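Hey, weird one. I pasted the Coiled-coil domain-containing protein 106-like sequence into the form twice and got a warning about non-standard characters only the second time. First submission, copied straight from the form history:
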Amino acid sequence: MPKAKKKNQVPKEESRMELIKEDLDGPEYTESWAPSCSTSLGSGSISRLEFLETKIEWQDKMIKDLEGERNFLREQVLGLKKKSTQSKVPTLEEDVSMSEDDTSQSPADLSDSSDSDVVIPKKKQRSTRNPASPDAAVPGRAHVRVKGPAEVVHRYKKVLKTFGRVRTMSEAFRKNNVDRGTIKMTAPIVELKIVDPDTFKTLKFDPAIDTLLSFAKKCATNVTLDKKAQIEDMKAKGKLLPLLMKY
């Protein structure tokens, strides 16, 4: 009888293990663990998004701070450049005061120089203008534009009179504030009027149609060979300006 009892106990233990295995692998076990896994994954994705959003906000703030610092430094550099350019360019008042200090001496300086027997010459202001330019000869005067043959003749005679004193045409042109080319282009008007006044009277100057240059060419075409020889003789004697003309 004891042997029969042992044979009945073995199946009971095997059936008990199978039941435990079914309980572990059954639907109740899997359903109880599935929600916990999904919850952990969801919370992890949410924390990741929050981290990225915080990082982006921090980067935006850093960019704004760097841009503000850049703008501040740029303003500082521009201000330094303006100050340097203003310090390099002296004003008109500073130039005048410097020239006055160079060209003038105080009474104390004069007394000191007389006591020490040292003569300090005054500095002369150098002129930057060209001596041969008309503006340097007659400051404040501009070229006077003539409007007709009568004014051309008057201007020519003024230059001729000055030429008789200075003996150089360049000096005569400079003193009368006129250039050589202007006198040379309008010289035929004066020369024809002097050597052949009758022919000159026949030529009419119309300001609405003619210019002084075209009228001068018209006068040059009316100079005959004998009149041309007379003009050259007067130039040699100093009665006309010795300009080289082609008739």
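That's the output from the first submission. The warning seems to come from a hidden character in my clipboard, not from the data itself. The chain has a mean pLDDT of 72.
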